[in-house]
Amino acid sequence: MSLYRTLRPLLFTLPPERAHKMTLLGLRALSKFGRPKQDAPSLSQSLMGLAFDNPFGMAAGFDKDGEAISGVHRIGFGFTEIGTLTPLPQPGNPAPRVFRLVPEQALINRLGFNNRGQMDALARLTAFRQHPKNAQARIIGVNIGANKEASDRIADYELGAARFADLADYLTVNISSPNTPGLRDLQGGEAVLEIIQRVRQAAPNTPILVKIAPDLVVEQACEIAELAVANQIDGLIISNTTLERGGVAGSKYASEAGGVSGQPVFDMSTDMLRAVYGASQGKLALIGVGGVANAAQAYAKLRAGASLVQLYTGLIYQGPGLVASLKRELEAQLKADGFDTISKAIGADHK
Ligand SMILES: Cc1cc2nc3c(=O)[nH]c(=O)nc-3n(C[C@H](O)[C@H](O)[C@H](O)COP(=O)(O)O)c2cc1C
Description:
By secondary structure, the protein is of the alpha/beta class. It has one domain: TIM Barrel. It is built from 11 helices and 13 strands. The strands form 3 sheets. Strands 3-4-7-8-9-10-12-13 form an 8-stranded parallel beta barrel, surrounded by 6 helices. A 3-stranded antiparallel beta sheet has the order 5-6-11. A two-stranded antiparallel sheet has the order 1-2. Strand 7 (about 140-145), helix 5 and strand 8 form a beta-alpha-beta unit. Helix 7 packs across helix 8 (about 265-280), helix 8 runs parallel beside helix 9 (about 295-305) and helix 9 packs across helix 11 (about 320-335). The radius of gyration is 19 Å and the shape is globular. It binds flavin mononucleotide (FMN).
């Protein structure tokens, strides 16, 4: 952490996207140096038929094209989620489109699903899977979306699911990005049911999660959870970025369009997670994401009902050492509270 404290001011002199590219390059280089350290047995769990060494995952959007999978695992994450990947490559919105809100420990982004497209990532992931040194690789999720110009967005999700069904450990259906006009509407009405059913059919044997927005009203989130259970969807990821500006009022970037991530999303995403867990107890795997930057926040997500915790913005502000300190502190916290495995802490607030 201290090395990152020294480097961060330098990194923050660069525009966010340039700093991000350099970070990805650094992680690619790091992947050549050994394997991730073994985690404490108390942090491991089996979920959706997958063995997670620890509950911490790199959230979607960090490694959109799946270029730094080994590097992300190497810094200690139990899993990484690549994407969002759309069927065709697309450039996203014009720059600047990522803003650092340093006093708020937040970001605003309106990238708009910039990615090199599914076929590019598919080739890279196929090569990754075929390489003998990756036989024991940690978990890899693939997050799929729709192209901005798609005439049939639901067909885009179906296609993404079919393409990655055999390569991904799990698939995430991202219907909650605020940066593709109209995409979030897919969370309501008949659309969400149709997406869930068609994606399930396209990838019958792959765990599937649906990623939702923190701006839904709780009833809508619980409705999606109900549909998920009824249609053999494995879980939900709660949540994506928010359109709310309450938590960043007064920031010079507050009026920039896009989704807010980081500290301002913590409470709203954790509240929604808690409500959905309460409504669907035990029937869905929940991944908690939004504003996690320390072990107490990660533990709060677990106790509220998350089986796994993802992060993105916290890493930008705290650096890669955050993952090791989260694991160390969580292990100590579990012990202090008398939980010999993480599974016993999940949803503990509800008991
Ligand atoms: C720069 C940036 C890009 C993102 N891109 C994606 C994306 O492509 N797909 C997605 O599902 N979520 C994306 N997210 C949302 C994150 O995965 C996460 O849900 C959100 O940032 C809240 O977590 P955090 O507060 O730990 O960052 C992005 C977030 C950021 C900051």
